[in-house]
Structure formats: structure tokens, C-alpha cells
Design brief:
This protein is α+β, with helices and mostly antiparallel strands and 368 residues long. The chain has three domains: 167 residues, Uridine Diphospho-n-acetylenolpyruvylglucosamine Reductase, domain 3 (2-Layer Sandwich), CATH 3.30.465; 81 residues, Alpha-Beta Plaits; 76 residues, Alpha-Beta Plaits, CATH 3.30.70.120. It is built from 14 helices and 17 strands. Strand 11 and strand 12 form a beta hairpin. The longest helix is centred in the middle third of the chain and has 14 residues.
Length: 368
């Protein structure tokens, strides 16, 4: 089912007699496989409002991300939160949609500077599990009516409602970009260097460890980037290489999309911990291949298929959160993809789902 209007979407949900598997472009097949009739938002497509001067864009949920990026690029603007494209990592096809990005709260390397997807989200329209059309938020940041509910929808994976429209703040594309590249560093030394850089006044927009190298990104006006590169080479990144322009952008697309793990055997985990704990987690698991983003606080792990228990145990010991992003269907069906919640938080989550989807028909079982 692929409705082309919000009213048609609401009618489908209202009249549903069984579970619905909510999808956007079908590129982020994560979590326990949902048994239900497919309901796609791909028919709800198009940018409905764009005000470059106000740095505001409104689009229907099924609008391809590439279309939005093209509209923004024509005005020298972009999505600040740098959403990941999961297709290479997960081996999926289809077209990433802006509703899918918001539903999964997809946020890339620039999160350390501008926040997550939910921090750029101004408002939403969605259909709840009873077929009611709800809206919250606005089209400018100072309109905070219902703002907490707006954030709640980001990362709900279609379990609280089916997004029909989203409002986002955007940002200008910077004049220049450069990456400082420190090769041959152990994870602990690399993260220590990144922590020093992130504690400096030089406004870093990316800090990661990938392929045995530490990467630090700087963006902005050309003279400003040149000055900050020079200062960091003098202070915290002595001897590091400097990569500029498209070559720099390509490095960060690889980090954003976890390209080194694409097409490789093994399961992929996405782990959030304190940045200082990132190297310790990798070491405790025996040194699997890892990408450390967000200064060490976001760890992508490529591990054996039987490593789930060890990953969850070590992450729990460190007080972090682990999400199983890629695994064979049998493992996905047996192991919860999302971090098990403590009893009080699980009760709140159940209460929210019962409020917005009392029949339990929206992506049932996906998030527990």
C-alpha cells in the first residue's frame, strides 16, 4: 500500500485489521523482521515549503533525501546533521526518504557540532495507530509548541505513528573544508588526540578514527579554516597530513556510511559510550575492526555472528547502548536489535506505544 495523500494514509491505518510494516524507501532494514502488510510513505513526496532566507524546509515524508539535497544545494544550503546512507552497509536498494531519516534519527559525523537529526527537526505531521492526523511543532525554531513530542517521533522507527510531513532547519554550505589526518595511531592515542582537539577553541565539525587514522574536520570561511588548520598543526596535530576539498569530503562519506564494513562477513553493531571508553570497549572485545566517530563516543563494530552476548555485556559494563544494525535474519529474530531498557524506562515506552498505537499495529515487535 502506497498512499499519495495524508488523508489516504490515515484511512488505511484507521481501517487496518492487522499489523502494518511501515517503510519509507526500504533502505534501513534494521531490527526484528516485522510481520505485517507493507505500508509505504513513498507516495507522499515533494518539498511543500522552502524559505532559504529563514533556513527552513518542509517536505512530505516520502520525499527522497537526494531530492531535498538537490533543492538545498541550488541555494548553497544543506542538511546540517549529515544523514547516513545505509544502502552499502546493509546491502539494500531503494531510495532513502526524509521520513525514514527522521523516524530513525539518522545523524552523521557532524553531530558533535550541530546535534542530531532531532535537533534540526522543527515540526512533524503524522498518523497515529488509530488513524488520527496529529501535528506538533512549527516551522521556525522559536515555535516550541509540542516540541518534546516532535523530538519523540525522531527515533521512534514508525512505532508511534506514520510520519506524513516534516519541517527542518537547514544550514549554509561552508566555503571551505579541510581534514587533518594522523596515521598509524592506536585507538587510545587517537582518541586522546581527538579529545584534545575537541577541547580546543577551533570549532571542529568531525572527529573520528577509521582505517588506523585519526581524522579531524574543519569547515567554514576559507581564511578561518586555514588559520584553524595551522593552529591545530602547531598544538595538537603536529606532523598530520592536510586533505582538502572533495578528497576531504570523500573521507567523511566513508565514515558516515561505514563504508569499510560494506560487503564484509560478520555482524555490525552501533554502540554509544563515553568517548574515553571507546578504545576500552574495542580492546575488551579482543580488538575487532572498528570505526570510532564522535570523538570516540560512537563505535561501529564488525564482529563475529556469535559475539552478541559479549558485546552487550561489555557495553552494559561501560554504561552504554548497543544497537544491532546488520545480521542474518535468524540472528535478528532471536536478538533484540535495540538496547534492552531498564524496567522503569520500559514501562514508559509501553505507555507511550499504548497511547499512540493502542491496537499495537504499527511495526509491532520492532523495538520490543
Amino acid at each position: 500500500m502506497t498512499p499519495e495523500t495524508e488523508a489516504a494514509l490515515a484511512e488505511i491505518v484507521k481501517s487496518a485489521e492487522g499489523p502494518l510494516r511501515i517503510v519509507g524507501g526500504g533502505t534501513r532494514d534494521i531490527g526484528a523482521p516485522v510481520v505485517g502488510e507493507a505500508l509505504s510513505t513513498a507516495g507522499l513526496s515533494g518539498v511543500t515549503l522552502y524559505e532559504p532566507g529563514a533556513l527552513t524546509l518542509v517536505a512530505q515524508a516520502g520525499t527522497p533525501v537526494a531530492e531535498i539535497e538537490a533543492v538545498l544545494a541550488a541555494e548553497g544550503q544543506r542538511l546540517a546533521f549529515e544523514p547516513m546512507d545505509h544502502r552499502a552497509l546493509l546491502g539494500t536498494d531503494g531510495t532513502p526518504t526524509i521520513g525514514g531519516v527522521v523516524a530513525a534519527n539518522v545523524s552523521g559525523p557532524r553531530r558533535i557540532q550541530v546535534g542530531a537529526c532531532r535537533d534540526s527537526l522543527l515540526g512533524v505531521r503524522f498518523v497515529d495507530g488509530m488513524g488520527r492526523v496529529l501535528k506538533n511543532g512549527g516551522r521556525v525554531m522559536k515555535n516550541v509548541t509540542g516540541y518534546d513530542l516532535v523530538k519523540l517521533m525522531a527515533g521512534s522507527w514508525g512505532t508511534l505513528g506514520v510520519l506524513s510531513e516534516v519541517s527542518l532547519k537547514v544550514q549554509a554550505v561552508p566555503e571551505a573544508e579541510a581534514t587533518l589526518l594522523g596515521r598509524g595511531l592506536e585507538n587510545s592515542a587517537a582518541v586522546k588526540a581527538l579529545s584534545s582537539v575537541l577541547g580546543s577553541p577551533y570549532d571542529v565539525s568531525g572527529a573520528a578514527v577509521s582505517g588506523g587514522a585519526a581524522l579531524v574536520r574543519l569547515e567554514g570561511l576559507g581564511d578561518s579554516v586555514s588559520y584553524r588548520v595551522k593552529r591545530l598543526l602547531d598544538v595538537a596535530c603536529a606532523g598530520w597530513e592536510v586533505v582538502e576539498g572533495e578528497a576531504s569530503a570523500a573521507l567523511w562519506r566513508g565514515v558516515r556510511d561505514v563504508t569499510p564494513f560494506a560487503g564484509r562477513a560478520g555482524t555490525v553493531w552501533r554502540v554509544s559510550v563515553k568517548p574515553s571508553d571507546g578504545p576500552a570497549l574495542v580492546a575488551a572485545l579482543g580488538g575487532p575492526e572498528a570505526i570510532l566517530d564522535w570523538g570516540g563516543g560512537l563505535v561501529w563494530l564488525l564482529v563475529e555472528e556469535d559475539a552478541a552476548e559479549r558485546v552487550r555485556a561489555e557495553v552494559a559494563r561501560l554504561g552504554g547502548h548497543a544497537t544491532l544494525v546488520r545480521a542474518p535474519d535468524a540472528i535478528r529474530a532471536a536478538i533484540p536489535a535495540f538496547q534492552p531498557e531498564a524496567a522503569p524506562l520500559a514501562a514508559i515506552s509501553r505507555g507511550l506505544r499504548e497511547k499512540f498505537d493502542p491496537r499495537g499495529i504499527l511495526n509491532p515487535g520492532l523495538m520490543g
